[in-house]
Amino acid sequence: SNLEWANTVYFAGFVASVIMFFFVQAFKIPSASMQNTLLIGDHLFVNKAIYGFRIPLTQIRFLEFNKIKKGDIIVFTFPAETKDQINCGGYQYGRDYVKRVVALEGDKVEVKNAQLYVNDQMIENQGYEIYEPIERIYTDRFIPQDLYQTLWENRVLEHELGLSLRDNFGPVVVPQGQYFAMGDNRDNSCDSRFWGPVPRKNIKGTVWFIHWPLKRIGIVK
Predict the structure, then answer these.
(1) Distance between CA atoms of 110 and 171, rounded to whole angstroms?
(2) How far apart are alpha carbons 157 and 194 in whole angstroms?
(3) DSSP helix, strand, coil percent of the chain (3-state; round to 5)
(4) What is the structure's pLDDT at 21?
(5) In three state form, how does the secondary structure of 64-113 look?
(6) Rounded to an integer, what distance in angstroms lies between the CA atom of residue 31 and that of residue 183?
(7) Are 101 and 179 in contact (CB under 8 A)?
(8) CA 35, CA 185: separation in Å to the nearest integer?
(9) In CA terms, which of 32, 43, 63, 79 is 20 to 30 Å from 151?
(10) Cα–Cα distance between 218 and 8 in angstroms, integer?
(11) Is the distance from CB of 205 to CB of 20 less than 8 angstroms?
């Protein structure tokens, strides 16, 4: 009957909504910041359950299957406190971003001549980073360390130092409950160097697999 059909459709929609809310999110790559790992136009699924389920309207999580670790590719809501906050040349409030975690809470992060250092250790190329043969940018401007950290945490450091942060950044210490994320396309990524750390509460999940285009289907690492 029509009623039975309607009930079936309603139930299927309800189940799909629950799955999307708790387990999976569809995402389309909008920029080149994660090349060559993720390309513009890639359609992928985000695993929202892996870091734990969030109780609606709260920040409470349970059943954390995995902790967030260095190397994870995360999808998160951009950490803008207000709609008129400007980063990366525009308003980012409410937008979803995808980047790779390179440092955890308490880690010291620095970039020198485009080379990443974490806790004073140079991070060897992992095979997914790409760089361009371009002239590196330096700044002569000196900002005291405490102020530098504060400007960075308040997401306004890029307003002071601009593009020079791409090649020479820090040092800063990642605050508790937050993470440092960068794009694999290091010279074309507006990331934590420019707009600060990613709060745990903003992280939705980790990239799972690409489902379109067909030639790109596969698990993402």
Answers:
(1) 4
(2) 7
(3) 25, 30, 45
(4) 60
(5) CCCCCCCCCEEEEECCCCCCCCEECCEECCCCEEEEEEEECCCCEEEEEC
(6) 10
(7) yes
(8) 5
(9) 32
(10) 32
(11) no
Q: Which two tokens stand for residue 166?
A: 């791409």
Helix (H, G, I), strand (E, B) or coil at 47: strand
Rounded distance between C-alpha atoms, residue 168 and residue 159, angstroms: 15
Name the residue among 18, 66, 87, 35 with its Cα closest to residue 203: 66
CA 114/CA 174 separation, integer angstroms: 19
Residue 71 has a pLDDT of 97
Nearest to 80 by CA among 70, 72, 91: 91
Contacts of 43 (CB under 8 A, 6+ apart): 26, 27, 28, 29, 210, 211, 212, 213
pLDDT, averaged across the chain: 90
Query: pLDDT truncated to tens, each residue of the chain (221 aa)?
Result: 665 665 565 655 555 555 556 688 899 999 999 999 999 999 999 998 888 767 666 666 666 768 999 999 999 999 998 999 999 999 999 999 999 999 999 999 999 999 999 999 999 999 999 999 999 999 999 999 999 999 999 999 999 999 999 999 999 999 999 999 999 999 999 999 999 999 999 999 999 999 999 999 999 98
Calculate the alpha carbon distances from 3 to 13, 17, 46, 158 in Å: 15, 21, 34, 58
Write phi, then psi, for 49 (nearest 5 degrees): -90, -20
